[in-house]
Protein 1
Amino acid sequence: MALGPIFRSTLRNPTGAVLIALQIALTLAIASNTFYMVKQRIDKMNRDTGVVNAELLTARVFYFGSAVDQEAQADIDRKALMEIPGVKSVSYSNSIPLGGSNNTSSLCFEQEGSVLGDDNCPHSPSYYRSDVNFHETMGLKLLSGRWLNDSDAIESESISSTASRTMLLSDVLAKLYFPEGSAVGKQLYLGGRPLTVVGVYERMLRPGSGGTNPDHTILAAEPQTSGYLSIRIESDRIEQVKEKLEATMVGLNDQRVVSVIRTLDEVAERTYRRDKAMVVLLLGVVALLLVVTALGVAGLVSFTVANRKKQIGTRRALGASKRDILGYFMSENFAITATALLLGGFLAYALNQYLLQSYQLSRLEVVYVFIAAGCLLFISQMATLLPALRASRVSPAIATRTV
Amino acid sequence: MLVYYSKLAWRHILQTPVLSLLIVMAIALGIGASMTMISYYKAMAHNPAEERSDSLFAVQLAAYGNDMEEWGRDSDGLPIQLTHQDVKNLREAELSFPRTGMYQFMTVVTSQREGVAPSNDYAGRFVDRDFFNMFDVKFLYGEPWSAQVDKEGDKHAVISKSLSEWIFGEANSVGKTFVMIDGEMLFTVVGVYEDFNPQPAYYDLSTSYFPGEGPGVFLPYSSVDTLGRFPMGNISGWFPEEVNSHADLMKSEYVWQVFWVKLDNEEQREQYRAFLKAYSEEQNKLGRFQNPNPRGDIKDVKTWLEYNEVINEDNKVMVGLSLLFLLVCLVNAVGLLLAKFLRKMNEAGIRRALGASKRQIFSQYLVEVGMLGVLGGLLGLILAAFGLWAVRELYETDIARLDPTLFMGALALSLFASLLTGILPALRVCNSNPSLFLKAQ
């Protein structure tokens, strides 16, 4: 393919080419950053919660009768719920992964106050307070040490922090505090109290959307009697139990309100609603962008074809085949698009740089620029194909018709 | 002249229907996307206090004893909430400005209608009587509790119209009593208000910025001690403190309440700032506020909304993205306009040869571009209405609506943008040599 004539004819009337190039470069910058943002959101929504999502039903239990023995009632609840076919385990806890209520406290190497500075208390994990069955209800995986048992369980009214003397750490947290060697048997301070690590579990996400450190969690044995009720059920029976849960619970004791009855999947859906909305909107804008770009390229190429009708006719009359004409327009577009993509690559990084500085976004991975560039090259060539085919059908006779 | 140009322009548009449609679509998509995002952004950035914005002030105190200079939304060392001790002191200070302490609590209300189970769907909030005036709560029946109740506390309640209907089956329940808290306490309704849920919920940004429901029941802040309700919201602290009961929480250094004061002019503001300074220093002497720089601050509603970053990053990114998208659409429109105009170049040549000036050709083309722009803008508004519907569905929010002030803005923007994009192609046309085209006929 002779690129010389293509180059010269493009340069003779560069406005159209410049406009196409500008549009493609901008589109690449926007699309690659958008793809990357979408990818991050999807990763966030798909991340492992560490618990058995599909088997969990949760509810909030709130007492209004003052004369209720909540502890005895919690035992009655557990027994009654365990009798329902399909129910495997029942727990009351202060919060649940991805749920609404969150307790955090700084986790320190030494008693706070005696040693100052962030080095002493580098992280603020969320802590779960529940009965000793909680790991079973949630379906956690033990990596080292042991689960909590009745000897760890402590009764407490404290709302400020856990009164427990022992705890389990998530794997991420254990590695952060004890990068060398096992965390089991070590002591750390939570809310000013010393707690001994008795085990390490693989993962359980924080309540809420998790922020930057969603894996920083702690588990302590402190049986709760209200707050979040979690029930682990065989997943095909979950809907059945869900329907009747409020009636069952209020039937057992009518001095309480049982509300916000949701499967953990529903809890997750609500927690991630903003992320999902963002993904849909971002993809919507990118899709429109690609359509607009495709139409723009098609429009401008048609215009070029119409403008060069005589030139095409002359070339055909001088012996150029239909394929040559098609190839000519396709390679002209290829050259323009490729140049634009090069420029767009730089623009993509400039845009990413701006986003990095203004918002909490991470650095653009180069693969997304290539994905977007690939898409654009394809779209641009496809948009050229139709007008180029029309160009190839221009009759050689046209060269003789007008002067 | 304009009428003639418009006629001519309309004929041109019809002569090149595909190109014209593409241009209109490009402008419409750009306007539609950016108007959707800007409308949503404007809804979030809305200041519901309006003309009261400048006179309502949220109070902050650097109430801690160690190095917490990173505390607060802006890492300025000022937490957005206050301790109970401080709210109590600020309420009781001998100043005559309207003020209110507040916090939200969860409560269970019992309905008096048959077969309706008790519900905790209606959030409760402790406030002072000034709250209703400061935050423009509209009373339908009755009035706030008395100044006496503000001092001594009583089981008086001001409830929303919805709650009144839910409990009593009627909107006007002033003077009636209902059961709430521990399933046994009787409260007397003294006032019923039109459902109150300003968006964003600027009166208390420590919980949710855009709650689905507003408060259902207000109780006198003066009963906080006796009712012993735990807050439903954030509790933060700077050192570990044992809290086993509501009484412990009230004595603690945890921050969990909010305090507002109404200051009408600069003189009053200065007076209040001086008061906060003196108060902080006094607390410092008493052994609290042991940080090196004991201080307080007041922020008006506008500042408070910005300080709390009510608009989240996603929305800012989307506005930026949609404007970039509009830019691409406009670049696209320039290309298409160029194609469209150059196709009609011979006509311009004839008109030039017949005596039309460059200026006339130029203005005639701009009229055409303007028409395309207005058409695009109108179509864009329809697309924006659809886009906002999508936003409402996606975020399950009600606040994203097409702003009437944006309506004219969108049309002006599309007209301006299209004229800007039309200049280059129109110049190309009117600067070309007419004889060139006459020859080719």
Protein 2
Amino acid sequence: MAVQLQLKQGELIALLEGEIDHHSARELREEIDSTASRTRPHTLTLDFSRVQFMDSSGVGLIMGRYRLASEWGGQVCVANLPERLEKLVSLAGIRELCTVVRTEEEEK
Amino acid sequence: MKTEPINEMKLVFPSSSSNEGFARAAVAAFAAQLDPTVDEISDIRTAVSEAVTNCIVHAYRDTIGKIEILMRLYEGGKLVIQVKDKGCGMEDVEKAMEPLFTTGGEERAGLGFAVMESFMNRLHVTSRPGKGTCVTMEKRLVGRSGYGR
């Protein structure tokens, strides 16, 4: 599991890669939070396009970042959710907290 | 009359979080003999991940114990997965199973049992404080070949 972080005009984009479970979520959280707390982005975008698997730890990750960004009035955006994760995200009611969007297809 | 499984397998491993991925992969490999669909495999992997995470986060909170997974396959495509621990157990199983209830802290969504319940066809949980917990999940696999239909 890895994350690439990119700051673009006050938006912090976290490109998540691999499998998100309880084990990997901690490292992701630490990496995202250290940059987010420092840069205080107006939008924290979590890009799931390269996530192969996630369980409710991924939901916890989204909810935790929502709480963090709220501290400075920022919002969380969930981008490019693969279809197989749709069921979990609906069950968790993520859409009530965050906007779920599809950004342009990235090149392979 | 009790039906005998056509195949069964037992897996025992320590409750280190680094074993979560391994547990999912092992159960998925066992289920693969039924030629399940991508969605079915994804449901099983997710449910197993939740059950194993519960053992790690709750049952063996400050310690490392043994997690046992028993997989059984029955005629007609029925898969039964049992995840057992000898950890702290729960006083109130019903309360623990309520969506959004968690004792796992801020980063836990409290959705583990809700996910197991909705991703599998049946879920049964027994627990005794100080003795451990046993989660039994059942899924009927139709599979790509329609074997279980």
